[in-house]
Amino acid sequence: MTEARGRRGGGRAARQAARLAAVVERVPFLTRTLAPVEVLSEEGLALLEENADTILEQVGIEFREAPDALELFRDAGADVDGERVRFPRGLCRRLVQATAPSEFTQLARNPERSVVFGGMNTIFAPAYGSPFVRDLDGGRRYGTIEDFRNFVKLAYVSPWLHHSGGTVCEPVDLPVNKRHYDMVAAHLTLSDKPFMGSVTHPQRARDTVEMARIVFGADVVEERTVVFSLINANSPLVWDATMLGAARAYAEANQAVMMTPFILAGAMSPATVAATCAQTLAESLAGMAYCQLVRPGAPVVLGSFASSMSMQSGAPTFGTPEPALVLYVMASLARRLGVPFRSGGSLTASKVPDAQAAYESANTLQPTLLAGTNFVLHAAGWLEGGLTMGYEKLVLDADQLGMWHAFCKGVDLSDEGQALDAFLTNEPGVHFLGHPHTLANFETAFYRSPVADNASFEQWEAEGSLDAAQRANGLWKRMLAEYEQPPLDDAVAEELAEWIARQKASFPDSDV
Question: 476 with 157: CB under 8 angstroms?
Fold first, then answer.
């Protein structure tokens, strides 16, 4: 009996690997067939747009240490008072709608992995910005460049992540002013999926563009979008010089940015859904309008990241109803504006990949998809309110993303989907297990998780009584062990490495 159980255990691992390998080659970005869920009427959405215009007109936005932005807005007809800019009603909307594309393609190094922003498309990217990493073996620790490269590899191997992401974790073992070289190089060489650039300093954004020119070709970068980046407002109602400088560097090069207020409702906005939505729209509109003044037609995305907070501790909370409502509303407002929308993810305040992490992540991811979000940052790996990137969490989240791929295809109403022939050729009372229709479809009829355990109790016990995190631990290690680097022209790789070496040698290390 023990030997038989052991064989089943080995078979289960082989089946998991086979299910992963069956789809690892390429799964395109998700194209939804289901209409987005609307939680507000046209009148309600119009009211929030009016409120956003009131904020822009009567309160205004501060553009700190950004004289170029003040000059551009003054020339466009805004009222500039010091660093405060007040906008005539509708000005920001007109600037965005006049030139910002409603859809755009981010070209990947492997063109087959390119992604389309906007419309009915959804793109999944891993979590972003965590200083810590966690796995079952080493626990919580500061991230390193090795961790960063591991997460780039895992995102590349995962069929359900369409995008390599950006700062998947902070490699704190490298100097702050030079780590962006290694991070961008990892995205460009260890993966051939689309990626995000550096935004922590305007020069680092320009470095990202230059590295992209080496790999893609300068003419391609001039004509196509190959870099996508996250630009955060300093809420409430402030854009600072660092973020604006990075946004300008990308917009000037015709590269895409998502202008995203990061709002902890009750602290960085009033503690209501409607007020948070109006503020988010106002801040993002001002940021996107700035990009259009820098270079008309530069691709922009309306970003929204809103969290509720514990009014007792001040800590952010996730998976709660109010941010879900903000997400639904902001997706609708982006569609009315005519630009792609970014929000959502698999968010949790839990420190480990436990039940809290699962239900909070599910409660965030469901409205993300049902709202019609186009770009989902933090889709996999997020722990501890974004402070930690989890190895097991990434694998568990990616499994859920695979399920959403299946769900968002909708109901198959083809002849095969209706299966009338199966009814007409099967007698009442006779099961369908051996029917030709079942035999022809059983491999693809239902999503099969590489992580979940659906075996009997006895088999689960015989295979080690592993919980989901323990199973995910084995899976990410196997993914890294089987990783194969995508090909890159030797001359291009050499030119990139030499350019990085020259840049690093040209100035001293710094912690800022």
Answer: no
Q: CB-based burial of residue 457 (10 Å sphere; 0-12 exposed, 13-18 middle, 19+ buried)?
A: exposed
Report the alpha-carbon distance of residue 132 to residue 388 in Å, rounded.
Answer: 5
CA distance 286 to 296: 14
- Cα separation, 334 vs 332, in Å, equals 5
Please tell me the predicted confidence (pLDDT) of residue 312: 78
Q: What is the pLDDT of residues 100-159, one digit of tens each?
A: 999 999 999 999 999 999 999 999 999 999 999 999 999 999 999 999 999 999 999 999
Domain count, the chain: 1
Q: What 3-state class would DSSP assign to 198?
A: coil
137-154 pLDDT, tens per residue? 999 999 999 999 999 999
d(CA 432, CA 110): 42
Beta partners for 122? 30
Amino acid at position 442, single letter: F
At 343-397, the pLDDT tens digits run: 999 999 999 999 999 999 999 999 999 999 999 999 999 999 999 999 999 999 9
Q: Is the pTM of this model over 0.90?
A: yes
Helix (H, G, I), strand (E, B) or coil at 132: strand
Is pLDDT at 18 greater than 80 in this prediction? no
Cβ-proximal residues to 456 (8 Å cutoff; 6+ apart), any chain: none
Pairing state of beta strands 256-264 and 238-239?
unpaired
pLDDT for 2 beyond 80: no
Q: What angle do CA 424, 429, 435 make, to 5 degrees?
A: 50
The tokens 């912690």 sit on which residue?
511
Inside any domain, residue 70:
yes
Work out the average pLDDT over 487-496. Answer: 97
The alpha carbon of 155 is separated from its chain's Cα centroid by a whole number of angstroms, namely 11
In a domain, 72, yes or no: yes
Whether 241 maps to a domain, the answer reads no
Is the C-alpha dihedral spanning 365, 369, 371, 374 positive or negative? positive
Residue range(s) defining the domain that contains residue 60 = 42-95
Is 409 inside any structural domain? Answer: no
The dihedral formed by the CA atoms of 13, 16, 17 and 18, expressed in degrees to the nearest 10: 120
